[in-house]
Design brief:
Elements (H helix, E strand, L loop, with lengths): L14 H4 L10 E4 L6 E4 L19 E5 L2 H10 L4 E8 L2 E7 L5 E6 L1
Parallel strand pairs: 3-6
Antiparallel strand pairs: 1-2, 4-5, 5-6
Length: 111
């Protein structure tokens, strides 16, 4: 279980000392307001065994902003990059998810 500093019980963690915490975080997660890219740490979803997953970063979510998500999607798709989730409109602008070169899932959003 994550503690209030975003670390599991018994772990030494100093991330909350150097990164500001968001005033609110979703259940099971801690959001940090680092700039220019905020990030969050969350507990694995129920039933997930991290020692038994094929793809790295399961449970990790990395989002980044781009000036034109649709154009980036089109360029990546044309280059043969695996697209996990096609572009769609969201509260964060146009978003899509793809697999990075190391196998991690990455989400780009416009705006």
């Amino acid at each position: 279980m994550l503690g209030t500093d975003g670390c599991r019980a018994g772990m030494v963690c100093h991330c909350s000392e150097s990164a500001g915490r968001a005033p609110a975080s979703p259940p099971g997660a801690v959001v940090f307001t680092t700039a220019p890219i905020p990030f969050a740490v969350r507990e694995p979803l129920p039933g997930v065994d991290l020692d038994d997953v094929a793809r790295p970063g399961l449970g990790m979510s990395l989002w980044f902003r781009t000036t034109d998500a649709q154009e980036l999607h089109d360029r990546l798709a044309a280059a043969g990059v695996p697209i996990i989730s096609p572009p769609k409109d969201s509260p964060f602008g146009r978003t899509f998810t793809f697999t990075g070169p190391e196998g991690y899932t990455l989400t780009a959003h416009g705006g």
